[in-house]
C-alpha cells in the first residue's frame, strides 16, 4: 500500500490533537489497511483492534442518541432512560424538535390574520421573537396569503422591519414587552404542536395596534443576537 510519509501522518495527528487519528489505504479487493497515530507516536497494532472494536461497538450503542434513527418521542424516551434527570432529553434533541410545527405556526397566524378587516390586512406585518418563527411564516405563509414576517433575532434584524404598519401580529414575546410599544395588545390565537420545541408550545398570538412609535423607529430595541428565550429576557435597547 502507498502510505503518506510517516512524518506527514504524525504531523496530521499532532495537528488534530485527538487521542488517535486513523489513516486508511486500499489493501486490495474489499480490504483496507489502517494505521493509527496518536499526537506523539504511532499506536501499536495490537491496540488497533481494541480501539477499532470500541469505536464500532460504542458507535452502534450510541447511534439512537446521536442520529435520528428512532421516532422523536422514542428517542427522547431512550435518552431519559439512560440519562435520568442529569440532562433533559430535549437539551440534546432540540434541533430535531425545531423541525416540527412550522406549517401549524403559519396556519395559526393565518387564522388570526383572516379575522382582520381587509383594509387592516393591507397595513399589517407579522413580528416574531425568533428567526425560526419568521422563517416558518415566510416559508409556509404564502399559501395562506400572509404578509412576510420580520424579526430582530440574529441576522433577520438586518432585513429590517418591513413596510410601515398600523397593525402588528406578534408572537414569541411577553405581553408586557409588547405593551411598551403598542397602546392595545389583544391575544387572538395560540401556537401549539406536541413535538415542537418547548418554546413553540402554547405560544400566544397577539394583535397589536395603536403603535407608540413606528416599528422602524424602535427596530433596534428588537435586535437580539442570542438564543435565550425572550419570554425570560425581553428585548431591550442595546
Task: Describe what this molecule looks like in 3D.
The chain is an alpha/beta fold and 238 residues long. It folds into three domains: 1-64, Diaminopimelate Epimerase, Chain A, domain 1, CATH 3.10.310.10; 68-97, no CATH class; 102-222, no CATH class. 36% of the residues lie in helices and 20% in strands. The chain contains eight helices and seven strands; from the N terminus they run αββαααααβαββαββ. The strands form two sheets. Strands 4-3-5-7-6 form a five-stranded mixed β-sheet. It is elongated, with a radius of gyration of 26 Å. Mean pLDDT is 85; it is low at 230-238.
By DSSP (H or I, 4+ residues per run), the number of helices equals 8
Could you describe the largest sheet, including whether it forms a barrel?
5 strands, mixed
Distance between the termini: 60 Å
The strands making up the biggest β-sheet line up spatially as 4-3-5-7-6
Low-confidence stretches: 230-238
Give helix % range. Answer: 25-40%
